[in-house]
Specification:
Blueprint (H helix, E strand, L loop, with lengths): L6 H21 L25 E6 L3 H6 L7 E7 L2 E11 L2 H8 L6 E5 L14 E5 L9 H11 L7 E8 L2 E10 L3 H8 L5 E3 L26 H4 L8 H16 L9 H13 L14 E6 L2 E6 L20 H5 L9 H5 L2 H7 L2 H19 L3 H18 L8 H26 L7 H6 L18 H19 L4
Parallel strand pairs: 1-6
Antiparallel strand pairs: 1-2, 2-3, 3-4, 4-5, 5-7, 6-7, 8-9, 9-10
């Protein structure tokens, strides 16, 4: 038997401590405590934005990998991240049109996916299961995706972590890429805790099909009607989870009681940035894709993905000419797509039918403009990041453009964003048209965009001129840098 003159006090103290720890576990986030899973080891390592990191890809047959990149098949390799080796990592090329066009132009700078547990069960990088290396296809500034993710995070939208990395292949320079945390298990755990819900990346199989499910339209209670969602699940969904998501789409379709099926606050914050950055290679564009869908307890959220064609550099079927900066930079924030598209995008359209959500959308737009642009944050982030990567861009052997064209793209991107902010502010205040109908009545209204050439941000001509440079870089790798 334990004998101690303070045993009662010790027992009481232990009981109190246990109760406190239990409360912290159950209600820690409400009390302001940070989940350990929200700050995983990889966040402070590879995704430390204060410096450019280094990744060396070690693979014997790099030429074979480039030749077969279009097949998108994983091959094993060794990855060295900031001096640490990770073996049996799965590597493949990634992308849709960017992957196809890179191959068609005979280029070798593909965006890449690295999957640490593809060949090695339990493989990870300090808790991270998968990341991508974004090649900045048709983004001469190399800043588009980085800046949009910064905007999304500012708007409190769950956003992938990212940082710049200097990539070498077998020790030979390959180029500056943007490392991006892939939305899979580690991402879900970091953003939503260990009891996270389901994550999907809805995408079309063919643009010739209707793809109602990618647009999040309701097509009836049978989950088999939504193949482009459920066949692109990041975690294998149960039948009950499928039915739960379909029920959420049914509620969304009805336009009533939307907060029972939609994380309205998060969705509105997402759309403020999505509309601002003029990205029509997205849910609000003709294809309706390039987003992640998160479902938990029957409530849907939309998450950001893929912004190399943002800022008006993708406007298929929207304007004539499609590169008119006055049209694009002054594009209405209340009807951010043409009527046929808008009517078929219920996650935006059905929310905006409600005066309360419509007003809240405007409130978030106002806060975004004042907090991110009018405060000077945007220019500070852009210029600091541009300085950080400048030396690497200058010596990038596979760059899609010259260093001089890169500097022009950075300057153009800054001007485009500031003009877009001025236009959005004018639309909020009623100075400029904020709907397509109003723009038809006053087509010349809006900020003056004379002098802006959106082609400077990235164009097909850059792909043609990049081939000799990338051929030389590939030859250097195959020759071992000799």
């Amino acid at each position: 038997m334990v004998q101690h003159r303070r045993i009662d006090a010790v027992c009481v103290g232990a009981a109190v401590l246990a109760a406190v720890l239990a409360l912290a576990f159950l209600f820690g986030e409400q009390l302001g405590l940070v989940r350990a899973s929200s700050q995983p080891g990889y966040a402070a390592r590879l995704f430390d934005k204060s410096r450019v990191h280094h990744i060396d890809i070690r693979m014997e047959d790099w030429g074979g990998f480039i030749e077969q990149a279009g097949e998108e098949e994983y091959l094993p390799c060794t990855i060295v991240i900031d001096g640490e080796e990770f073996h049996q990592v799965g590597l493949r090329a990634k992308g849709n049109n960017s992957l196809r066009l890179t191959g068609e132009y005979g280029l070798s700078r593909f965006s890449l996916k690295l999957e640490f547990d593809h060949f090695l069960a339990g493989g990870n990088y300090y808790g991270l299961d998968k990341l991508s290396l974004d090649a900045s296809f048709q983004d001469n500034s190399l800043l588009k995706t980085f800046l949009v993710y910064d905007m999304m995070a500012f708007q409190q939208v769950p956003t992938p972590l990212c940082s710049y990395v200097w990539v070498t292949v077998n020790g030979v320079g390959w180029g500056l890429f943007l490392a991006v945390e892939e939305p899979e298990e580690a991402f879900a755990r970091r953003n939503f805790g260990p009891g996270y819900g389901q994550l999907y990346k809805p995408d079309y199989r063919s643009l010739s099909e209707e793809n109602r499910d990618v647009a999040l339209q309701y097509s009836g209670p049978d989950p088999s009607q939504y193949p482009n969602i459920f066949e692109n699940a990041k975690f294998q969904p149960t039948q009950a989870e499928k039915e739960r998501l379909v029920r959420a789409l049914e509620i969304l379709d009805s336009g009533e009681n939307l907060e029972t099926a939609v994380n309205v606050d998060e969705v509105l914050r997402y759309f403020t940035v999505q509309v601002f950055v003029m990205n029509w290679d997205s849910y609000l564009g003709p294809t309706g894709h390039n987003y992640f869908l998160y479902e938990e307890d029957g409530v849907l959220s939309i998450l950001p993905w893929d912004y190399n064609l943002a800022f008006g550099t993708y406007a298929l079927g929207m304007t004539n000419p499609v590169r008119d900066p006055h049209v694009l930079i002054n594009f209405p924030i209340n009807t951010p797509a043409e009527g046929e598209v808008m009517l078929n995008r219920p996650l935006y359209h059905n929310l905006m039918k409600h005066s309360e959500y419509y007003a809240r959308y405007h409130q978030y737009f106002d806060e975004f403009l004042s907090g991110y642009f009018e405060s000077g944050r945007f220019q500070a982030v852009l210029r600091q990041t541009a300085r950080q990567i400048a030396l690497y861009v200058k010596q990038d052997p596979t760059a899609f453009c010259s260093y001089e064209d890169h500097l022009l793209a950075v300057e153009t991107l800054e001007q485009v964003c500031l003009l877009r902010a001025a236009s959005a502010r004018g639309q909020l205040e009623g100075k400029y048209p904020s709907t397509l109908r109003a723009r038809q009545e006053a087509p010349g209204a809006g900020v003056d965009t004379s002098g802006i050439e959106l082609e400077a941000l990235g164009d097909f001509e850059d792909l043609r001129s990049a081939k000799p440079r990338q051929d030389a870089a590939l030859a250097a790798v195959l020759q071992g840098g000799e």
